[in-house]
Design brief:
- By secondary structure, this protein is α+β, with helices and mostly antiparallel strands.
- It has two domains: about 5-55 and about 265-405, no CATH class; about 60-260, no CATH class.
- It is built from 13 helices and twelve strands.
- The chain has helices spanning about 5-15, 20-60, 80-85, 150-155, 200-205, 215-220, 240-250, 260, 265-290, 290-300, 305-310, 315-355, 375-400, and strands at about 65-70, 75, 90-105, 110-115, 130-135, 145-150, 165-170, 185-200, 210, 225, 230-235, 255-260.
- It has a six-stranded mixed barrel.
- A hairpin with a 2-residue loop joins strand 3 (about 90-105) and strand 4.
- Helix 1 (about 5-15) packs across helix 12 (about 315-355).
- The radius of gyration is 32 Å and the shape is elongated.
- It is a multi-pass membrane protein.
- It holds the Pfam family FtsX.
- Belongs to the ABC-4 integral membrane protein family. LolC/E subfamily.
């Protein structure tokens, strides 16, 4: 057995003359354990929330989305669309026209996003997450129907069971004749029947209405222009590989984004928040480790004669340093091991039984989501090792300066 570790472990297990040092060592270990456990739990919750957001957005967004690099819309042709369909890994291609419009239902008005989609939109497995009220359909050419975000439905006080009231849609025309006195010449108007409400995420619920492509194309006078093309990837093909093929086919004039890139800002914010939480809790862990510094400093004073004996027997200052650094490491690692284990158990129980509730009755999930990632445990261990070394180094230096004449 390594001599410095042997002596350090004996110091850790033995009773100190001053009971206060023993108590301080145990408090140090408990502080490290609690800090480590909190770090593991909070990071796992952030991982769970990130996964939840991805799953909710993936339910509404396409696996791949093609947009023009310049301008909000672009012209499409049958040959160009067929070229995309023929790309290896592409299963479903959905044409999209999306823009802001004014909606009116009875005496209520609301500004929202009107998203026109081709008939195969619902075949992409949309709305798998969340809640649906009513019939999930887009109607026919003669009687188009709209799928409406629950928030929009709330603002407009809509009633799906009312067969006689239709949703009015208004869209401003290009100002060709600014001198007209007839306000009806300034906008396009059409009506559509509400068929269902969806609830996925507040951003979508409060801002989106899904309608058939031809209805939106005629209302907005888009012709062969589209704002985006949405792609569903065939099973067995990776999204990244299909994305690379589409970029090759489309060239530099178009961007191809996966679900993460469509909401890059939000996901980046979550990662930044997770990083700052990790740094903050690491500082709290460092404060808890100050007890290690004090307990080792007092132990160095108490064991001054023992240290002098070791030096008289030929021990070098390097060995004395190692003894106290390893003593601090034993205290910290004992606490960290307990903390990692307790953090794992708490996350496992939350994931299995959902003990801690979100407290939101209308939420898609009832309990806080958690997801444990081995890298979180790794970085937590690295943080503990670093903090332990910094907390133990100074007392070790003080102890190594003892001389044999101090006997």
């Amino acid at each position: 057995m390594n001599l410095s570790f042997f002596i350090a472990s004996r110091y850790f297990r033995s009773k100190k003359k001053r009971n206060f040092i023993t108590i301080l060592s145990r408090i140090s270990m408990i502080g490290v354990a609690v800090g480590t456990m909190a770090l593991v739990i909070v990071l796992s919750v952030f991982n769970g929330l990130e996964d939840l957001i991805r799953s909710l957005y993936a339910s509404f967004d396409a696996e791949l989305k093609i947009e023009s690099v310049k301008g909000k819309s672009f012209e499409v042709t049958d040959d160009w669309l067929q070229q995309i369909r023929d790309t290896e890994g592409v299963e479903i291609l959905t044409e999209v026209i999306e823009d802001n419009a004014l909606f009116k239902y009875k005496d209520y008005q609301h500004l929202a996003r009107l998203k026109g989609v081709s008939e195969n939109y619902l075949k992409q497995g949309r709305f798998n997450e969340g809640y649906i009220w009513g019939e999930l359909e887009l109607g026919t050419e003669s009687q188009p129907k709209a799928i409406i975000g629950r928030g929009v439905g709330f603002y407009l006080s809509m009633d799906l069971d009312n067969e006689f009231e239709l949703l009015q849609v208004f869209y401003p025309k290009a100002p060709r004749n600014a001198g007209t006195l007839d306000p009806r010449q300034l906008y396009s108007r059409d009506v559509i029947k509400p068929s269902a409400f969806f609830s996925i995420e507040k951003e979508f619920d409060d801002n989106y209405i899904i309608a058939p492509l031809n209805f939106v194309k005629n209302l907005l006078n888009y012709g062969q222009k589209r704002t985006s093309i949405e792609i569903k990837v065939k099973e067995g093909f990776s999204i990244s590989s299909v994305k690379k093929r589409l970029k090759t086919v489309l060239g530099e004039d178009f961007s191809v984004k996966d679900t993460d890139e469509q909401h890059a800002g939000l996901l980046r914010t979550i990662k930044v928040e997770k990083l700052f939480v990790f740094i903050t809790l690491s500082f709290i862990l460092a404060v808890a480790s100050f007890n290690i510094f004090f307990s080792l400093s007092m132990m160095a004073i108490e064991k001054k004669k023992d240290t002098a004996v070791l030096i008289a027997m030929g021990a070098k200052a390097k060995l004395i340093k190692k003894i106290y650094i390893k003593q601090g490491a034993i205290i910290a690692f004992s606490g960290a091991t307990i903390g990692l284990f307790l953090g794992f158990i708490v996350c496992l129980i939350q994931d299995t039984y959902g003990i801690v509730s979100l407290g939101i009755s209308s939420s898609v999930i009832d309990n806080y989501p958690v997801k444990m990632i081995w890298t979180d445990f790794l970085w937590t261990s690295v943080a503990v090792i670093t903090i332990t070394f910094l907390a133990s180094y100074r007392p070790a230096v003080i102890a190594s300066k003892v001389k044999s004449t101090d006997l």
